[in-house]
UniProtKB/TrEMBL annotation:
GO biological process, one term: cobalamin biosynthetic process
Pfam annotation, one family: CobU
Name of this chain's protein: Adenosylcobinamide kinase
Taxonomic classification: Bacteria, Pseudomonadati, Pseudomonadota, Gammaproteobacteria, Oceanospirillales
GO molecular function: adenosylcobinamide kinase activity; nucleotide binding
Amino acid sequence: MQLFIGGACAGKRDAVKARFPSAVWWRLSPGQRLHEATHIMQPSVPLVLHGVFEWLAAVQSLDISSDVLRAQWRGDLESLESAAQTHGVTLVIIMNELGRGIVPMARDQRRLRDLSGWFSQDTASQSEQVWHVRHGLVQAVK
């Protein structure tokens, strides 16, 4: 699994498109679980998952604790990575980095940033490679 992370409009998608031109793209939508992407995997074809922040914004408003959401995310990552290995699929996840901005006053916005940070950490720890994208420049972090 590879993680491309960076701020809004930093060039993450362009970097992924350049490196994985034949990839299948799947946008995570509210109400879906990450592991549901297994149904669109094609053997040996890279799979790019994006829309995590928007998905998280919708999910975090539900009455589910942060710990439960994070446990689901970790479990789904493991399931998805296992399926990717079985099918010879390079799994690529694009995520927004939010740690360099102003901490919002609204509680729900702070929780959103916390969840995003935890999910990014979990994804980075399970990824073989992590790339930080800023101003269109791609730097290997892991």
